[in-house]
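Re: the 203-residue chain
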Amino acid sequence: MELPNNSTPTKNQLRKSLRQRRRDLTPHQQKQASMGLCRQLSLLPEFVYGQRIAAYIPNDGEIDPQPLLELAWRLGKEIYLPVLHPFAKGRLLFMAHYPNQVMAKNRYGIPEPLCDQSAYCPVWTLDLVLTPLVGFDADGNRMGMGGGFYDRTFAFLRDNSRPRKPHMIGVAHECQKVEKLPSERWDIMMSRIVTDDELYHAG
């Protein structure tokens, strides 16, 4: 992605620009990107051998992982979706997701499974977490929506005394790649970043 006039945009300006870029994709481009993402992810050992997979419902032009979820269900894998934590502000819970599930919209208008203690999955028992990105670079630095939900929820991964699980894989449209993004000390590094066209090693 080239930036005009050799200027360096602020992080918020870049986030706004990249969000608009993915929203500008046509329905056909979105569908093709979704299928491309599924092809890339389905070959990864993290998916092949993983049983508990966290995904998301796409919003704001995010790349759609639905074809991968349908494949996972056919293979007998478990799918979990993020839910805004009702008590711990800025954190996520992960609830079981299955076809034709009744959902409710959260305060951001994103569908979520209903909170149910029996459907709750502790984050450290997940095998794979698909993390939607706003932007990324080839070195694995990434930009989210700015709320810090994934960074807080998976902060334990920064502690090297804990098992390195789950595998965190960032997903995005290829057009969301930029030349360089700054990293913050609280960022949870992705093990890979996968788009509809490419796979980038990170971490």
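The CA atoms of residues 96 and 127 lie 14 Å apart.
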